[in-house]
Amino acid sequence: MVTLNHLSVEDPHHDSPPPPEAPIPTPDCHRQPLVPKPGSGEFFLGRRDNLALSLVLLIGCYSAILIPVYFPLDQVATLGNDFHHPKDLVLLNRSATLLSGPCRPGWCLNHLTSLSFSAGLVDIPVFVQQDRPVPWELSPPLGLQGSEEHLALALASLPEHSLPPSLGREGSCRRCMVVGNGGVLHGSHLGSHIDQYDIIIRLNNAPVPGFERDAGSRTTIRLIYPEGAPHLAKEYKKTTIVALVVFKSLDLDWLTSVITKQPLSFWSKMWFWREVVDDIPLRPENFRILHPEIIHKTGQVLQRYARKQGNMVPTLGASAVVMALQLCDHVSLAGFGYDMQHPGARLHYYEAIRMDAMKAQVVHDVSAEKLFLGDLVAAGAVTDLTGALGVSSTDTEHPVNSTCTPPSHCEPV
């Protein structure tokens, strides 16, 4: 029975003792804060703890937004080319206009005539041919003196020595694109334009997969020396010719080994300044040997721009441009031009090495090369798509000698 005035319930078991009455709480200004019992699942934060947690969350949110801005370039670069926009729409439109225009036979040679050294840049053999032996007067890389036996073995392993019919001047007008390794190519979005050229020349281990948006996807001729050859098989996809640039007799032995699949001895490998690739996934008919006269003639022209006298070894970039003049009616360049006035600028389009890395070099005179290429552009003999070959008074007054022996980060311009 329920008694309303006492709000109690009568227990049917009269023998059971009544439940104890709960104590009535009394106000106490000095009570201690409640502490959750272990395992009770309750959790309370004081004002100080709440403030600390709020600051941590706030700093975390700002960090998520701001830290990527300060990431080193080599970490940001791994994001690839899918997240940036063309950095210069004017150059991109200029390239599109150039491609849409007609190809005019003999364009390069006709515009070379305005340069005093034009005679030294024409009619240069491109590849060494077995049926045209010549007496070599200079040693590698300007000639092949002292390497005749190594050369004979290498040529014997090559089914083809001359230009393929598809690369000759006979027939239709041809356009060449020489893709330099310069950081100026990064963010250019020129890849689809580059792939439209008849002959696309690349240099050493400059990567293609992953950089197609800026650098294109096809390779007609890749100029390499052993230490600069790409190690990944995927870099040789869509490649027509790999052309060896000979810096020493052992380079010819390496080429013979790659073609015949006969490995070099351990002792021979010790003489390379860096580990070299043992296999290149191309057929023997896809290999050539660049004629040293290309290197020699390029160096002779560069001597006109240099302060030091003597035989000059050009970069593969400058040599590739001279080679292109022998192959095509129109020659365009992308990824050329060292910006020595900005040492923090990107040196290569595919890695985070900075421009000031060139200061440690003393073999290649990149200032002389920039002046040379700038004159070719000014004469209309070649076109600079990425626009980094402008010549300033600082360049002419303070030429920079750079060297490689040859280290990979110095090849090419």
TrEMBL record:
<feature type="region of interest" description="Disordered">
    <location>
        <begin position="1"/>
        <end position="32"/>
    </location>
</feature>
<keyword id="KW-0812">Transmembrane</keyword>
<keyword id="KW-0472">Membrane</keyword>
<dbReference type="GO" id="GO:0047291">
    <property type="term" value="F:lactosylceramide alpha-2,3-sialyltransferase activity"/>
</dbReference>
<feature type="compositionally biased region" description="Polar residues">
    <location>
        <begin position="391"/>
        <end position="406"/>
    </location>
</feature>
<comment type="similarity">
    <text>Belongs to the glycosyltransferase 29 family.</text>
</comment>
<comment type="function">
    <text>Transfers the sialyl group (N-acetyl-alpha-neuraminyl or NeuAc) from CMP-NeuAc to the non-reducing terminal galactose (Gal) of glycosphingolipids forming gangliosides (important molecules involved in the regulation of multiple cellular processes, including cell proliferation and differentiation, apoptosis, embryogenesis, development, and oncogenesis).</text>
</comment>
<feature type="region of interest" description="Disordered">
    <location>
        <begin position="391"/>
        <end position="413"/>
    </location>
</feature>
<feature type="transmembrane region" description="Helical">
    <location>
        <begin position="51"/>
        <end position="71"/>
    </location>
</feature>
<dbReference type="InterPro" id="IPR051142">
    <property type="entry name" value="Glycosyltransferase_29"/>
</dbReference>
<dbReference type="Pfam" id="PF00777">
    <property type="entry name" value="Glyco_transf_29"/>
</dbReference>
<dbReference type="InterPro" id="IPR001675">
    <property type="entry name" value="Glyco_trans_29"/>
</dbReference>
<keyword id="KW-0808">Transferase</keyword>
<keyword id="KW-1133">Transmembrane helix</keyword>
<feature type="compositionally biased region" description="Pro residues">
    <location>
        <begin position="17"/>
        <end position="26"/>
    </location>
</feature>
<protein>
    <recommendedName>
        <fullName>Lactosylceramide alpha-2,3-sialyltransferase</fullName>
        <ecNumber>2.4.3.9</ecNumber>
    </recommendedName>
</protein>
<keyword id="KW-0443">Lipid metabolism</keyword>
<dbReference type="GO" id="GO:0006629">
    <property type="term" value="P:lipid metabolic process"/>
</dbReference>
<keyword id="KW-0333">Golgi apparatus</keyword>
<dbReference type="InterPro" id="IPR038578">
    <property type="entry name" value="GT29-like_sf"/>
</dbReference>
<keyword id="KW-1015">Disulfide bond</keyword>
<keyword id="KW-0325">Glycoprotein</keyword>
<keyword id="KW-0328">Glycosyltransferase</keyword>
<keyword id="KW-0735">Signal-anchor</keyword>
<dbReference type="GO" id="GO:0000139">
    <property type="term" value="C:Golgi membrane"/>
</dbReference>
